[in-house]
Amino acid sequence: MANYQKASASFAGRSELHDLLGLSSCEVSLNALPEGAHVPFVHSHTHNEEVYIILEGEGEFFLDGEVESLKPHDVLRVDPQCVRAIRAKLGTLKFICIQAKQHSLEGFTMSDAKVPEGPLPNWLLK
User: Fold this and answer.
1) Where are any strands of DSSP class E within the chain?
2) I want to staple 88 with a disulfide (CB 3.0 to 4.6 A). Which of 33, 69, 80, 117 is the partner?
3) In angstroms, how far is CA 7 from the centroid of its own chain?
4) Pairing between strand 66-70 and 48-63?
5) Is residue 84 within 8 Å of residue 42, measured between CB atoms?
6) Do 77 and 63 form a contact (C-beta atoms < 8 A)?
7) In a 3-state reduction of DSSP, which class is residue 40?
8) CB 48 within 8 A of CB 39
């Protein structure tokens, strides 16, 4: 059995990747809100913080009663208890949302990575 999963996903509405990739530590979704559209509810979470990565379009984020403007390349981390809602203003708002249990990260790339012995890709062979 392979130690990885590969799939194709699109920004057609909302694509949740947990089932598609068999995710066990986080939820990742690809989202596209057409101009003028919005998520039809305000919500918070019990345990999961969220990271939003804005790729295209412009929008607004309602966060604990305040409104933040959104544009491409903006990134936001939202605490679980923060009350939130999002809407597209100009163009289709495309974004990636990553959810993970707050305070659950035990290591980063440099502290969690191992360099194994074994085969190398041809671009590393010199």
Assistant:
1) 14-16, 27-33, 48-63, 66-70, 75-78, 84-101
2) 33
3) 16
4) antiparallel
5) yes
6) no
7) coil
8) no
Cβ atoms of residues 13 and 67 within 8 Å: no
- Give the pLDDT confidence of 51-107 residue by residue, as tens digits: 999 999 999 999 999 999 999 999 999 999 999 999 999 999 999 999 999 999 888
pTM metric for this prediction:
0.89
Name every residue whose Cβ is closer than 8 Å to that of residue 95 and which is 6 or more positions away in sequence: 31, 52, 53, 54, 55, 70, 86
CA 81 to CA 88: how far, in whole Å? 23
Largest Cα–Cα distance of the chain, in whole Å?
56
Is residue 101 within 8 Å of residue 48, measured between CB atoms? Answer: yes
Identify which of 74, 72, 73, 55 has the alpha carbon closest to the alpha carbon of residue 63.
74
Contact 63, 84 (CB under 8 A): yes
Instruction: Count Cβ atoms below 10 Å from residue 54 Cβ, excluding itself.
Output: 20
